[in-house]
Structures are given as structure tokens and as C-alpha cells.
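**Polypeptide and fold**
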Amino acid sequence: MYAVIRTGGKQYRVAPGDTVRIEKSEHENGTLEFSDVVAVSGEEGKFEQDLGGAKVLAEVVSEGRGDKILVFHYKRKKQYKKLQGHRQSFVEVKINEILVGGKSFKAEAK
């Protein structure tokens, strides 16, 4: 069982119990709800036809910033060099439940 959600300009394939790093987004009380669900598959190779009201519920595990990426611009023979760094913020979430068509798929308790 998995779903494909869209958030932060990217798409992620998630299943109940997965932990995913997504672009930083607003959350309240440590919970997130993704309503932009692209696809849901209950069994291998078959997709749900009606995605009206489909949601993915998740809880925030941690927040942070990724590794530094160095961007170096260089123009030869012009004495032009520019070095710039960037660290992208992220939110790490744990997928708890996928709701679609009145059915609920939850993470298995360990």
C-alpha cells in the first residue's frame, strides 16, 4: 500500500510507517495533512480510480537543514570568480495513515 503526494514542488512515494524528508512547511501541533494526493495503490499494479477526499496524515519527527552545497561561478580569462553556499531547510515526517475512498491504511505497530 502506497500513495504519491505532491508537496514543495516535488512528488514523494510514501507508505504507512515511512519516514520522509520534505521541504520545510508549516505544521501545527506536530502534525501534517497532505491533501494533494496524485495516486494511491492498494495492491501491486492497481490504482484507486476515485481520489476525491484522499488524504495522507503524518507527524513531524524533526526539523533541520541539509548539507551545504557550494555553487562556484567562473569565467575564464576575465578574472571572475564567485563562490556561494546554500543549505536547504527540511522537515522530517513519519507517515501514519493514508485515507482514500472511506478506507484507512495505518502503519503497523511495532
Summary: The two ends are 18 Å apart (CA to CA).
